[in-house]
Design brief:
Length: 184
């Protein structure tokens, strides 16, 4: 895995110093590609849209309500660093990491490990989604060939394979061509 694949960008809502100090003392700074700060009271959702981050760290009470939504918006991880979090179970149930300032140095390695696993899982899911889309496209093309030319499924599949080989292209491209040509 490349160095870039092992690096994470961090956005901090609230005080930057506890995280910066924890990164310095833990030696985990080499895994961080950049840290950006959102001023207190700023629109956190807008900040994440403008400057996507792998990890969102929330240290201010005003931003707590955004923690569960940030995870769903694409952050690999959300970390609440707060010594007094009301309804802590609500955040944990949403997949949000929670720790106190004192626990931050011990939590960071776990957080980065979880981000690595999640990044790999998202990559695998994306690859599977692509394969599923391709299978649907090929099936749609075969159905068109079956309905238009009264081919069997095997004949339609062989037609697509032959078309792909004749044109030195992928089966997906042959299926797209059939769909463009014969779909109404």
């Amino acid at each position: 895995m490349s160095d870039a694949a092992n690096k994470y960008s961090i956005m901090i809502s609230g005080s930057v110093e506890p995280l910066a100090e924890a990164l310095r003392t833990s030696g985990l700074g080499r895994y961080i590609s950049g840290i950006s700060a959102v001023p207190p009271g700023a629109n956190l959702e807008r900040a994440l849209i403008l400057h996507p981050a792998s990890i969102l760290v929330i240290t201010e009470d005003a931003a707590l309500r955004y923690a569960p939504a940030a995870y769903k918006k694409g952050c690999l991880a959300v970390l609440l660093v707060n010594d007094r979090v009301p309804h802590l179970h609500t955040y944990i149930d949403s997949g949000v990491f929670c720790c106190t300032r004192a626990e931050l140095p011990a939590t960071l390695p776990q957080l980065l490990a979880a981000c690595t696993r999640l990044r790999e899982t998202r990559g695998e899911a994306e690859a599977l989604r692509g394969k599923l889309d391709e299978a649907r496209l090929i099936s749609r093309a075969k159905l068109l060939l079956i309905s238009r030319f009264k081919m069997s499924e095997d004949e339609a599949h062989r037609f697509l394979e032959r078309s792909a080989m004749d044109n030195c292209t992928k089966l997906r491209n042959a299926a797209e061509s059939v769909i463009r040509t014969y779909e109404e």
